[in-house]
Write the structure tokens for this entry.
Amino acid sequence: MERTLAGDRDAYRVLVERHSHKRLPAGLPHDREPHDAEEVVQEAFLRGYQKLGQFAARANFGTWVYRIAANYAIDRMRQRQKEESRREAPRVQDADGIETTR
């Protein structure tokens, strides 16, 4: 981790290889598709690299990147729920002012 924090990209690649095989998305609230879980893992490591300056050296890298993955998965789930709710049938009022679905 020290080499990664010093800017060594190859050292980060080693961390990714070491931690990505640990079924990182297991238990995360990710989508139903296997490729979605892979995307969560890839995005977690990308975000982890981008936020290396925020890494607390006393923390475990695996735990830290898992938390990034969990947060990203939750964000994706919330975004999908918003998109699905927007796609629902529009509600309109009839002549009596009662809302109905078209």
In short: The chain has a mean pLDDT of 80. The longest strand covers residues 91-93. The chain has four helices and two strands.
